[in-house]
Amino acid sequence: MMTPLPALLIALLLLRAAAAQTAEELAQTAARAMQQQDYAAAENAYRQLLQSSPNVAEVHSNLGLACYSQKKIPCAEEALVHAQKLAPGLFVPNFLLGEIRFQQGRYQEALGGLSKAVKIQPDHREARKMYIATLVGLKQYGRAIEEYDRTLEANPNDADSYYGLGGVYLQLGQGVIQRLANEPGYGALMTAHHYETSEEWRSMALNAYRDAITQLLVLRPQP
Q1: Which of 42, 112, 119, 211 suits 15 as a labelling partner, its CA being 20 to 30 A distant?
Q2: What span, in angstroms and rounded, lies between the C-alpha atoms of 97 and 208?
Q3: Over 90: is that where the pLDDT of 87 sits?
Q4: CA–CA gap between residue 98 and residue 105 (Å, rounded)
Q5: How far apart are the C-alpha atoms of 173 and 201, rounded to whole Å?
Q6: Which residues, at least 6 apart from 109, have a Cβ–Cβ distance to it below 8 Å?
Q7: Taking a C-beta distance cutoff of 8 angstroms, is the pair 127, 95 a contact?
């Protein structure tokens, strides 16, 4: 004859059985919270989910996104770095970590994640824009221009890219003028060459800005 289990033990077993069934429910709760932009509730659900799924990269990635959406940067960084280590090919950790590093002015560190994000999702506009902005921050103007040209080939009506391209050309022109001012020993021929080059870049910048304004006018909804 079996001895009846104590009531407390029965309760503990029931709780354990219920907990074993909550992983899917927690995932659904977290997903609903994210859809409703209740990021604090999503964060809480993902943290609970990690107790049973500590090595699932997507859970860490989603936790990072929930934290980032609340502007809780240290929390987001920790979760995203963990996700990136578990699954280097995930888009969200690479993109968000790149964006965080960019906002912190850590352009070289941002470049690695953003370049991966662009390779993973080449058509993701925000990732590509952030990637180009990072190139500009690193003063890699040639690569930035190439990326703007590539973007405009795919989307000729992208006013933001025209505007950004104009900014790059303007910085190039200003750089030439500054170097010219600091190098008084250059001969007249070299001076003229620099002047012409800077004027060429100014012209290219103005043309890019004009294109941007034109596209904005075309895309602006009519009253």
Answers
A1: 42
A2: 31
A3: yes
A4: 11
A5: 5
A6: 101
A7: yes
Domain ranges of the chain: 62-138, 142-223
User: Which region holds residue 105: left if phi is over 0, alpha if psi is between -120 and 50, else beta?
Assistant: left
3-state secondary structure 99-134: HHHHHCCCHHHHHHHHHHHHHHCCCCHHHHHHHHHH
User: CA 112, 114, 115, 117 torsion: positive or negative?
Assistant: positive
The residue type at 209: Y
Global confidence as pTM:
0.71
Domain 62-138: CATH superfamily is Tetratricopeptide repeat domain (1.25.40.10)
Rounded alpha-carbon distances, angstroms, from residue 31 to 40, 41, 73, 95:
12, 10, 21, 20
